[in-house]
C-alpha cells in the first residue's frame, strides 16, 4: 500500500518531497489512531482519507501562514513612508512653539493650528484684532527663525 500512498501524496502535494512528508504524517497518524480503524473495512480507503485530511489541513495552515506573515520583500519598505522624518520635524516644531511667549503661542495655535479667523481668535483671547495680528506675526517670524526658512 505504501507505493500507492506515496504516489497519491505526491500527486496531491505537487512534488515527491512534499508527498513523502505527507505520506509520513499519514502513517504516523494512522498508527497513533489505529484503534479507530474497524476490522473488516478497507484499510486503504481509511489511509487515503487520513492522507487527504492532512493535505487539506496543511493547505489551510499554509494559507493562514501566508496571511499572517508578509513577504520578505515587504519589509524593505518598512519605515520608508517618511513618517519618522515627519515625527522628528513635528517634535522640532513643538519645541519651538514651547519657546514662544505665551501670547504669541496662543495666537499661532488659534489661527494657524486650529484655523480660527483673526476676529474669532481675538475674541477667544480677549484682545483687539490688531493686537492678535501683531502677536501672530511676531510668533510666526520667531518660529521661522527657530526652524529655518523651511518652516
For the largest beta-sheet, the strand count, sense and barrel status come to: none
User: What's the tally of helices?
Assistant: 7
Proportion of residues in helical segments: over 70%
The end-to-end span amounts to 77 Å
Tell me the structural class: mainly alpha
* Residues in β-strands, percent: under 5%
Cα Rg:
35 Å
Overall morphology? rod-shaped
Average pLDDT over all residues = 86
**Unreliable stretches, pLDDT < 50, 5 or more residues?**
none
Quaternary status of these chains? Answer: single chain
The H-and-E topology, N to C, reads as HHHHHHH
Tell me what the structure shows.
The chain has seven helices and no strands. Helix 5 (102-113) packs antiparallel against helix 6 (118-125). The mean pLDDT is 86. It has helices at residues 2-13, 16-32, 43-68, 83-99, 102-113, 118-125, 129-147. It is mostly helical and 151 residues long.
Write the topology of this structure.
Elements (H helix, E strand, L loop, with lengths): L1 H12 L2 H17 L10 H26 L14 H17 L2 H12 L4 H8 L3 H19 L4
Helix pairs in contact: 1-2, 1-3, 2-3, 5-6, 5-7, 6-7
Quick summary:
The chain is an all-alpha fold and 151 residues long. It has helices at 2-13, 16-32, 43-68, 83-99, 102-113, 118-125, 129-147. The chain starts with a helix and ends with a helix.
Amino acid at each position: 500500500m505504501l507505493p500507492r500512498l506515496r504516489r497519491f501524496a505526491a500527486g496531491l502535494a505537487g512534488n515527491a518531497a512534499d508527498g513523502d512528508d505527507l505520506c509520513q504524517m499519514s502513517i504516523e497518524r494512522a498508527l497513533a489512531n489505529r484503534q479507530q480503524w474497524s476490522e473488516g473495512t478497507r484499510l486503504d480507503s481509511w489511509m487515503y482519507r487520513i492522507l487527504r485530511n492532512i493535505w487539506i489541513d496543511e493547505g489551510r495552515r499554509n494559507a493562514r501562514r501566508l496571511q499572517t506573515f508578509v513577504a520578505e520583500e515587504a519589509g524593505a519598505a518598512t519605515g520608508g513612508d517618511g513618517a519618522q522624518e515627519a515625527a522628528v520635524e513635528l517634535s522640532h516644531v513643538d519645541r519651538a512653539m514651547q519657546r514662544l511667549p505665551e501670547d504669541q503661542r496662543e495666537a499661532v495655535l488659534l489661527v494657524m493650528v486650529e484655523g480660527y479667523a483673526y476676529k474669532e481668535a481675538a475674541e477667544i483671547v480677549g484682545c483687539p484684532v490688531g493686537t492678535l495680528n501683531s502677536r501672530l506675526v511676531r510668533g510666526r517670524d520667531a518660529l521661522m527663525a527657530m526652524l529655518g526658512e523651511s518652516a
